[in-house]
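B., you asked whether I could sanity-check this one before it goes into the benchmark set. Here's the sequence:
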Amino acid sequence: MLAGKDEDLANRVRAVLRIPQVLKARGGGASASIDAKVMAERSIKAGYMKDALKYLQSPTRATWRFEVMLKLGWSYNILHQDLLALRWFDLARKSPDPQVAAEAGRSWRNLRAAAERFRTTAWLYPVFSTRWHDFFSYGQIKTGVRTGFPIQPL
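And here's what the prediction gave me:
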């Protein structure tokens, strides 16, 4: 097995036997891009978001650009860096792939409301009294300000 043509298998056997492994040189072209893409997907599935960001931000991501933008948005969102996630989702919305563009658009719309500086909400609760034959209502209009500080004004 160690003398065979399959270098990956030989390195696995060396690792089990605690023998130093033979390193092979990798080409820096498309294979490095595919390796980074595969490693990023594995990291996302395993929940290692910081590692996924490292692979997604590698300089070889030019060949799979819009997918990377969407996955960067997901990673930043999970790491609670919503402003960066919003930026990447916005860029991914311009994808020629309709599936990527639709997913990025949904994610962008969901995050946009939470990232706005001013957010106004209103509600109204109407009540009709059968005893007094009159119409009453109770409502509220509230505007919140996102200051960027951890403490929000009421």
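One thing to flag: Helices lie at 7-17, 30-46, 49-56, 65-78, 82-92, 98-115. Otherwise nothing jumped out at me.
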